[in-house]
Design a protein that fits this description.
mainly alpha
Length: 80
């Protein structure tokens, strides 16, 4: 498997990352390797950076630093 060393993550890689976070036990000594293997095309270091970025995003959301989007139901124009 070749490594994609750029910082761009595809939608598919992000989905695999999210699924792996829900699947693998964080206390496992192989956790980072399992995440990287599940994502595909990313090194352990890239997965670690992505995870730290996710934690920063969560912190900003939880601390009210990111506005909540105004989602609309596209079928009838109502707010969700």
């Amino acid at each position: 498997m070749s490594s994609n060393t750029n910082s761009e993550w595809t939608e598919k890689q992000n989905k695999h990352f999210e699924d792996a976070l829900a699947t693998y036990n964080k206390d496992s000594p192989e956790w980072w390797q399992n995440l990287a293997r599940a994502v595909g095309g990313k090194t352990v270091e890239e997965v670690k950076r992505h995870y730290r970025s996710l934690l920063r995003d969560i912190d900003q959301i939880e601390n009210g630093k990111v506005p909540v989007p105004n989602y609309r139901d596209t079928t009838n124009g109502r707010r969700m």
